[in-house]
Design a protein that fits this description.
The structure is a single chain. It contains eight helices and eleven strands. By secondary structure, the chain is α/β, with parallel strands linked by helices. It has a five-stranded parallel β-sheet with strand order 2-1-3-4-5, sandwiched between helices. The protein has a four-stranded antiparallel β-sheet with strand order 6-7-8-9, covered by helices on one side. Helix 6 packs across helix 7 and helix 6 crosses helix 8. The longest helix is centred in the middle third of the chain and has 18 residues. The radius of gyration is 18 Å and the shape is elongated.
């Protein structure tokens, strides 16, 4: 899943991004409200962590602008303020949750995961099934029949992208976009490393290579 952090405190933003990437999320970071609004409108994000006190455009206005055009991405607002009025204003603009600084990183991750689970339960089932393989996007657990398969956070993220479009070809650029962040400028062939690892754990025939096009997850 892909997250956007809009936070002008750069050390905090970098710290949050590092931690969330370790949880298996792809994370983009911007430090300005206008830039955040633009990126949120252009990118397909699963959740936005949005500070209120931002240069360019404050978080209230960013949130309201996104909701005004029908963008229903979950938004977790961050602020150094406290008090019922601030919370009410944030939620009135369309935010889904609210966290006051300073906060525990563990609490933030729990709130992020809760919002993502809530979004999943309101729509499609969080469990993706491909043959005997089940991929639970809420608990981030994978089973082949009754046997659980242990994956790293990045392996799970790659598998999730393939499982969402099971039977279809998923290209390297699409996987990079959703599993790594937009600032990644490393070797795109890193995907092959994770595909090889997944084949070792899931079975060699589970993921097909479509030469020149990408990869396809198939039922076995």
């Amino acid at each position: 899943m892909r997250l956007l952090i809009v936070e002008d405190e750069k050390r905090l933003a970098v710290s949050l991004a590092k931690g969330l990437r370790a949880e298996g999320f792809a994370v983009d970071v911007v430090h300005d409200g206008l830039e955040g609004l633009h990126l949120a409108g252009e990118g397909a994000y699963d959740l936005i962590v949005l500070d209120i006190m931002l240069p360019g455009m404050n978080g209230y206005r960013v949130c309201a602008a996104l909701r005004a055009v029908g963008n229903d991405v979950p938004i977790l607002m961050l602020t150094a303020k406290d008090g019922e009025y601030d919370e009410a204003e944030g939620l009135d603009t369309g935010a889904d949750d609210y966290l006051t600084k300073p906060f525990s990183y563990v609490v933030l991750v729990a709130r992020v995961k809760a919002l993502l689970r809530r979004r999943g339960s309101a729509g499609a089932s969080p469990v993706l099934r491909v043959g005997t393989l089940s991929v639970d996007t809420a608990t981030r657990r994978v089973h082949r029949g009754d046997t659980e398969i242990t994956l790293t956070a990045k392996e799970f993220a790659v598998l999730e992208q393939l499982a969402i479009r099971a039977g279809q070809i998923v290209g390297k650029p699409e996987i990079l976009e959703h599993v790594w962040d937009f600032a990644y400028d490393g070797d795109p062939n890193i995907i092959e490393v994770y595909i090889s690892a997944l084949r070792r754990k899931l079975g060699a025939t589970t993921i097909q290579t479509v030469r020149g096009a990408g990869y396809r997850l198939v039922a076995v």
